[in-house]
Amino acid sequence: MTRNRLLLVQTGTPPTAIRQAHGDLPRWFRTLLAPWQTQLTTVRVFEDEPLPTPDNQTIAVLTGSWAMVTDRLAWSERTADWIRQAVAIDMPLFGVCYGHQLMAHALGDEEKAMSILIAFLGGMLTLLSPCTLPVIPLLFASVRGRRGQLAIMLAGMALMFGAVSWLVTVASGWVVNLTLAGRGLALAFFTLVGLSLLSQRVAQRLTSPLVALGESA
Question: Keyword set for this entry (predicted)?
Answer without folding.
Answer: Glutamine amidotransferase, Membrane, Transferase, Transmembrane, Transmembrane helix
